[in-house]
Amino acid sequence: MFRRAFWFTAGAAAGVWATTKVNRKLKQLTPESLAAQAADKAVEAGHRLKEFALDVRAGMLQREAELGEALGIEAPVDDPALPAPRRAAALGGPRDGARPPHTDNHSYNRNEDH
Question: Rg (Cα) of the chain, in Å, rounded?
Fold first, then answer.
């Protein structure tokens, strides 16, 4: 008698456990739940990507400072404290709005289009 009661109780408990487990898995596979999981993963990936970009930027600034120190450059090129002509000269660009000389060796011939 006690054996039957024990196995009946064990079977009922196993059935409840299995039913609960299946219902949880079914809830995870609903379209709404899958969409929420995908959104959470996308937000998490965005945070990781932002952290990576910040790490890259910090490393870039550190390396730029090291190179500037090694080359004896004290102020960064994009320093807003520099006046515009000095900034352009530091960048190697044209002065006073002058256009750089034309360096393209290819001449345009309209007849080549036909």
Answer: 35
